[in-house]
Specification:
12 helices, 2 domains
Length: 261
């Protein structure tokens, strides 16, 4: 493990993320819409991984190159998906509610409480990427397990998003609850997949000598379950969509499981 480069690598990644966040904030001010930050969430990690690859000592190892490639595939896929999903729409209701709570001056405050906060969170959660990219340990069986877990997560996230997009595109499904495909087994296959991805990145880090970064996937899982993921989306959805209450009663919230009768 290249401990000597941890501080400069961390500073380089943080600086890159904060600059990107500030530029995106300027765009959001001109549009009066901060939903743009959702599209940047995954690319933030690619930017951090690229910074780590530049600062890491010596040439990239096979593990480092693989992790950088996997982050790029995931970040570009998710970034494009969210951009297309939000294109031409009004500000997401989560951010609209935040704007209402923090007026006057939300345009300036959003630099810190939206863009800056997400950049710092991404920097913290990206710690396993540094460990995996900078580590010099030879590849082994744990890397294969990490890749398998990453592939599982990527499949759940990608297939779940595609199934939901097709469901919403069909006018016959208006007002109905998506409970087909992966969504029959878990109410949030995309979030479950995202958690698998990050535990996969951590396993790559463990193989490289970076088990200390376990706080990162743990924090990501906590955010997905209790903060910005499942808990936030389902806070009042049963009141807005009564049919969703039945869906909750029969379907696992996170981990895939056969539906209850």
């Amino acid at each position: 493990m290249a401990d000597a480069v941890l501080a400069p690598a961390a500073l380089a990644a943080l600086g890159a993320l904060l600059v990107a966040a500030a530029l995106a904030w300027l765009v959001s001010v001109s549009r009066r819409n901060v939903t743009l930050v959702d599209s940047l969430w995954a690319p933030f990690f690619l930017l951090a991984a690229a910074a780590y690859a530049v600062v890491a000592p010596g040439p990239l190892t096979a593990r480092g190159a693989l992790v950088l490639l996997l982050v790029a595939i995931w970040a570009l896929r998710l970034g494009v998906h969210l951009t297309l999903r939000n294109r031409g729409k009004a500000e997401d209701r989560r951010y609209a509610a935040m704007r209402a709570r923090h007026e006057p001056g939300f345009a300036w405050k959003s630099l810190f409480i939206v863009f800056g906060l997400q950049a710092v969170l991404a920097w913290i959660i990206a710690a396993p990427l540094f460990a995996a990219i900078a580590g010099r340990a030879p590849p082994g069986a744990l890397d294969a397990l990490a890749a398998a877990l990453w592939l599982t997560g990527f499949a759940f996230e990608t297939v779940g998003d595609a199934q939901l997009a097709r469901f919403k595109a069909d006018p016959a499904n208006a007002g109905q609850v998506m409970d087909r495909g992966l969504w029959r087994w878990t109410r949030h296959p995309n979030y479950f997949g995202d958690a698998c991805l990050w535990w996969g990145y951590w396993m790559f880090a463990v193989a490289a000598g970076g088990a200390w970064t376990v706080f990162a996937p743990a924090l990501m899982t906590l955010l997905l379950l209790k903060v910005s993921g499942v808990a936030l989306l389902e806070r009042d959805i049963g009141e807005r969509r009564p049919a969703y209450r039945d869906y909750i009663a029969r379907t696992s919230a996170f981990f895939p499981w056969p539906p209850r009768s």
